[in-house]
Amino acid sequence: MLDADVIIIGGGLAGLVSAIHLSQAGKAVMVIEKESYPHHKVCGEYISNEVLPYLNALGAHPAILLPTTLTKFEMSTPKSALIGCDLPLGGFGISRFTFDHFLLEKAKLAGAVIIQDTVLDVVFNNEIFTVSTKDKNYRSRIAIGAYGKRSTLDVKLDRKFIKEKSDWLAVKAHYKGNFPNDLVALHHFKGGYCGVSKVEHNLINICYLVNYASFKKHKNIKEHQEKVLYQNPHLKAILENTAMQFDTPLSISQISFEQKECIKNHILMVGDTAGLIHPLCGNGMGMAIHAAQIASTLIIKFLNGSITSRQKLESEYIAQWKFNFNSRLKTGKLLSALLKKERLSDFLINYIAKFPMLLPQIIKRTHGKPITLS
Q: Do 8 and 30 touch, CB atoms closer than 8 A?
């Protein structure tokens, strides 16, 4: 006997949006999430407007949460000019603390079953998934992996990327202070880059990614900020004139930007579980929601019989995932590699300052077109 048509492992953006979409289509959905809600996450908390038509179609438009409206972008290095442009599609700023909880309630309202537990293993046999947690085993026809950047489950599934050491560390906190309501800023420093933008309740989200080799030279986050981040005058001005609202910053390590499989052991991976775009591109949250739309649409067709085999479901998902995201991931990786080189990054940004029409075109390379239910 099955416990659900679809079991979703992880209750972040991609997992919860998938749960809403599938439940509204009449499918029995179970979400297994190890954390309780609401909770903060290390995240840039900017979402491209490309996903708004889809969220609206699901009845999950975030406007009720009073997010900030983000229309402008600027960036710098410690020695470059400050360059900026209008965001081609625009976006909105919303904290994961607020948005994930909002999506959770929408998923529950749609009929999804939410279980707080930790998934230990997933086995596929005779067209059925058995998902083992600390407390129980659950069975379903479809399994979605939406558990984030890395997990012990990746080790169990023998995923290649998890075997490679990653040197990236991310740090995030909310602040109060003066900062434009409509601006997304990206300021580079030696060994990394920092994103700054407003979220709801007039809070400023400051989230940065740094190479661990650079970070470990300093005793703690505060010293690293003062000795490294402050070398960028724009970033120094922001940090010196804002007050952190967390007791301590959140941090995560071992962030991998290596290629991942979007299907492993017949599990459809969505969001960061399928592939992580460099935060400097600012579109990880939008990609997670878009991946949920692709996976959910195909799963409904499979469960309804219009996709006639699991092989066809998986090949179509791989094709659509690559079509929509491969180019963005490659662009993100290239930009990150270029901007890690100090002299080259200074040159590139100063060059773009002379030809400002280039910046919106670069942004478009890491974003997609508006999506909706299909």
A: yes
CA distance 21 to 13: 12
* H/E stretch holding 359: helix 358-364
Instruction: Return the CATH architecture of domain 4-71+90-165+255-337.
Output: 3-Layer(bba) Sandwich (3.50)
Domain ranges of the chain: 4-71+90-165+255-337
pLDDT (0 to 100) of residue 19: 98
Instruction: Tell me what the pLDDT averaged over the chain comes to.
Output: 93
Strands 46-48 and 263-264: unpaired
How far is it, in rounded angstroms, from Cα 118 to Cα 143? 15
- Round to whole Å and give the CA distance between 92 and 71: 8
DSSP 238-268: HHHTEEE-SSS-EEEEEE--S---SEETTEE
Dump pLDDT digits (tens) for 38-88: 999 999 999 999 999 999 999 999 999 999 999 999 999 898 889 999 998
* Separation CA 332–CA 341 (nearest Å): 15
